[in-house]
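Async update (no meeting this week)

Hi team, since we skipped the sync, here's where things stand on the single-chain job. The sequence we agreed to prioritize is pasted below, unchanged from the tracker. I ran it this morning and attached the output directly underneath so nobody has to dig for it. Comments welcome in thread, and please keep replies under the output.
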Amino acid sequence: MVLDSRSRTARSEPRVNHLLLVDDDLEVLALLKKFLEQHGYCVDVASDGTGLWQAMARQQPDLVILDVMLPGESGLVLCQRLRSEHSVAVIMLTAMGELSDRVVGLELGADDYLTKPFDARELLARVRAVLRRTGEISRDKPRPTLEFAGWLLDVTRRELRSPDKVMIPLSGGEFDLLLVFAEHPRRVLSRQQLLDMTRGDAFEAFDRSIDVQVSRLRRKLEGDVSGTPMIRTVRNSGYLFTPSVLVKR
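Output:
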């Protein structure tokens, strides 16, 4: 089932970000849609996976806000498909205390999560933070490309290429974490520092999320021919990015 929003905020500069909210609670959908539109976003809503794909076919959003508990395909299944087929940021909504869903959501590539019940202002803060991190709000300032061990991290395009020039898909959270590592090479960073530098104030303490993201990055960087792990665990301290980094303008 899809609830198609035809109303749009007035065209203006800068560009209005487009959100897709997916939840089977129609009252929650209506309230959050109105709230987010009042804060300048264009919002479409859907109540299940069928509605999500119909909305995606009409226009790909900048960000999908996706409830885990949905009729038919679960939000976790939908998140996995979104990450494999589309370049779009995802915020997962999970029930209070369902730690496993949050961990799995991050494993599947979600950029952030929020536990129910939540204040709409908290969701707004998460939306702003994710859009800021994924570069959807401002892309007008070119940034350098970082090179390490033959890998290229294009900060402006938010792309990672292997030494063989193969594009490596990264979720928004994975890109932000790798960027922090590349900007602080050969320096031990604690989990709290990594949380602060990748998530900022819009993040509730959940150390396991950093471990999940590091694990995903390690798997994607396993092609390093040197055999030396790029991200090394420093016991009781945090993580260390081992390669030297060259800044290319």
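Quick observations from my side:
The CA atoms of residues 45 and 57 lie 13 Å apart.
The domain at 145-248 is CATH 1.10.10.10 (Arc Repressor Mutant, subunit A).
Reply here if anything looks off.
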